[in-house]
Amino acid sequence: MTNPEIGKTIEAAGRKTNYLEEGTGPAVLLLHGSGPGVTGYANWRLTIPDLASDFRVLAPDAMGFGYTERHENETYSLDGWVEHTIAFMDATGVEKAHFVGNSFGGGLTLAIASRYPDRVDRMVLMGSAGLDFGLTEGLDTVWGYEPSLENMRKIMMECFAYDKSLITEDLIKSRYDASKRPGYQESFSAMFPAPRGRHVAALSTPEDKIAALPHRALIVHGREDAVIPLESSHRLHQMLKRSELHTFGECGHWTQIEKKDRFNGLIKSFFLA
Predict the structure, then answer these.
(1) Exposed site from 55, 173, 202, 251, fewest CB < 10 Å?
(2) Is 165 annotated as catalytic?
(3) In whole angstroms, how large is the CA radius of gyration of the chain?
């Protein structure tokens, strides 16, 4: 049986990089979050088909995540994730792209927009990192994950989804199985060791640099998000001159899943306008 999480492979920044690609047109880069066992497919499986009708959609597995090649004794940093993403764009022939960044991927998007402004067209920041804020209990739980079915159930039920009916036992098991693949937990635990508050700061871009960004930005957040505080998106909205903010009620950290149709319509119209 074909694994839908494995797509194409390309060399970027000295590592074989797994990515999904669908559609033609202006490029849209989808950057996933930092949950245990995450892949581009797991984050964006409900978004890619909708966007692919109008865009060339690319969803890579970031360095240290998913099916992208891992190196021994790897050190992880915002600098490394930025350079790997830019190398991925170079390798796939993408000069400039719209970005959609989820959580960790939002922090990565802001860093790329700050350091390589000409590579970013419009950006969507969804439950985004990128500012320094007090470590939430939800984020501490996610980054502190140790592989077990019970721990995965706790994260998914308490941290990710407002609508608990989305969390089936099959989904819990599939994400648990993903989190215990060879090498996955080793790299995941190396990224965000305790004390974890420092990693929020390490993923942030200086506020003056964010305020100077000229890009159009759509900020999206679930009102009941237990991982990234809604207040952080309000702060981003105040800083980013050409931004708009959309808050979904009765929605947690999984905006693109819990509010799939409205989320997809919102970002597509934002990119096409």
Answers:
(1) 173
(2) no
(3) 17
Residues 6+ apart with CB under 8 A from 143: 34, 191, 192, 196, 199
234, amino acid identity: H
Residue type, 40: G
pTM, two decimals, is 0.97
Q: Catalytic: which of 32, 98, 246, 253?
A: 253
Q: Which of 34, 103, 204, 232 is catalytic?
A: 103
Domains of the chain: 8-272 (3.40.50.1820)
For residues 108 and 204, the answer to whether their CB atoms sit within 8 Å is no
Q: Is 103 a catalytic residue?
A: yes
95: which DSSP letter? S
Q: List per-residue pLDDT tens for the chain, 273 residues long.
A: 799 999 999 999 999 999 999 999 999 999 999 999 999 999 999 999 999 999 999 999 999 999 999 998 899 999 999 999 999 999 999 999 999 999 999 999 999 999 999 999 999 999 999 999 999 999 999 999 999 999 999 999 999 999 999 999 999 999 999 999 999 999 999 999 999 999 999 999 999 999 999 999 999 999 999 999 999 999 999 999 999 999 999 999 999 999 999 999 999 999 999
Three-state DSSP state, 56: strand
Residues belonging to the chain: 273
Exactly one of 225, 232, 243, 246 is catalytic; which is it? 225
**Angle, CA of 232, 238 and 239, to the nearest 5°:** 90
Q: Going along 103-163, which residue ranges are E strands?
A: 120-126
Q: In which element (H, E) is residue 84 found?
A: helix 78-91
